Amino acid sequence: YSWYADGTIQQSGLYVEGKQDGLWSTWSQAGQLASEITWCKGVMEGAYRSYYASGVIQADGNYTAGYADGAWSYYNEDGSLRETQYPKRKLHELEDEGMERCGVRQR
Asked: What is the pLDDT of residue 65?
């Protein structure tokens, strides 16, 4: 966990073997949820969602091996869909070829 100077929570999540793991949440200084992201062994892996100060979803997507993957949806403050993008996924190199990360075999 980390906090703002006034004691309001800024970020929460777990570390496993010194690396971010599982769901991490970030809050604004006003105490409103700003974003949620899933980590696995220190790499962004899974769902991502960010929010406007009003609590309405701002962006929604997925990470695979640390890169934006698949459909990413972006919303207006009224909650209506503004656009959907499909980022081109880049392959990244792992230190050890064939290393398993979160149950997904990487090459």
From this structure: 87
